[in-house]
Design brief:
single chain; 336 residues
Length: 336
């Protein structure tokens, strides 16, 4: 008699390997559910308004974490993604101000494509110059921030009410309709996840990040992979910038916003199971981790912890989890 085990073995699917690879991302999603459940007990009332608030306000960091995850999986790191968020936010707020929905949508598409080309050129520079990613992208972070200040010297600008509804579920940016925010998160994340796992180009990014020399000898165009990874990262950073202008209803070119967003995106991908050494990780896990990183502040506030102390607690928790992730990754590599 044929058993389920025989069927699994006949298909060649390695469940043990799948558990090793997906166990951490699944655990992060479980942790997110636990934290949300705990949060519902900390506040007097938890309903659709609170869900909508979490969903929409976590969008920028979630998009940024997906972009950073793609770049790190390919073997790089981008310290300029947060500045790209600020730049695209400033450009969108300036161009979309007092424009109808149709025009703002066309501007949004142009900004995403422009950011992909601009950040893809950063990957090209890194590939051609052989200068480490961290050095080049640190420089681009200042360039992007400077451009943002040139375009929008101070907070201002705006966008259409319809565009705000797409990301927040409300034309005013505040409401209890959480469906649009969740849809706006799911669509690009699924698209990037399928691209990474189901396309030849996406798999080439994993191969390049895992071992660039072996990937090159196997026929992978590692230079092209680097450019594509940075282009995808730029596009997702642009999505974060667009989400920000939709949530706030304006643009803000402050450098501190970009630097904090960059650091949080790196923390999110490590928490989500993406190895900083490259070649390992999932954008789906990075999304759950990004929501957790964002969600820690409301939880600590609900616990009555002083905001200054909350920053220390939040940083300590993230550091501990990142250390744990590093130890588990080391154990997994030794096992393999």
């Amino acid at each position: 008699m044929t058993t389920l085990g025989d069927v699994v073995r006949s298909t060649g699917f390695d469940w043990a390997r799948w558990r090793r690879r997906q166990g951490w991302p699944i655990g992060v999603w479980v942790l997110l559910v636990v934290l949300i459940t705990w949060y519902t007990q900390l506040i007097p009332r938890f309903g659709s308004f609170q869900v909508a608030s979490i969903a929409k306000n976590s969008l920028p960091l979630s998009f940024l974490a997906v972009g950073q995850a793609v770049i790190v999986i390919s073997g790089g790191i981008d310290l300029g993604l947060g500045a790209m968020l600020v730049l695209t936010n400033s450009v969108a707020a300036q161009l979309m101000h007092e424009q109808p929905l149709g025009v703002t949508l066309l501007i949004a598409v142009g900004i995403v494509l422009g950011a992909a080309v601009l950040n893809g050129s950063v990957g090209w520079v890194i590939n051609r110059s052989r200068v480490p990613d961290i050095v080049v992208t640190l420089a681009t972070s200042f360039i992007y921030s400077g451009l943002a200040l040139r375009i929008l010297p101070g907070p201002g600008g705006g966008t259409s009410a319809g565009f705000r509804y797409l990301f927040t579920g409300s034309e005013s940016g505040s409401g209890s309709n959480f469906i649009p925010a969740i849809v706006m998160l799911i669509i690009p994340v699924i698209a990037v996840a399928l691209f990474m796992r189901r396309s030849r180009t996406g798999l080439s990014l994993y191969a390049t990040g895992s071992d660039p020399n072996a990937a090159y000898l196997s026929g992978v165009d590692t230079g092209r992979a680097k450019i594509i990874a940075y282009a995808v990262g730029g596009a997702m950073a642009a999505m974060a910038g667009l989400a920000t202008v939709a949530i706030t209803g304006s643009g803000d070119p402050r450098f501190s916003i970009g630097s904090n967003a960059t650091l949080n995106s790196v923390a999110a991908i490590v928490l989500g199971g993406v190895a900083l050494t490259g070649g390992v990780g999932s954008v789906v896990g990075a999304v759950a981790a990004a929501i957790i990183v964002f969600f820690l502040s409301p939880i600590l506030s609900a616990m009555g912890i002083d905001p200054n102390s909350a920053q220390v607690v939040q940083g300590t928790l993230i550091a501990l989890v990142m250390m744990l992730a590093g130890l588990l990754a080391l154990r997994r590599r030794r096992a393999e």
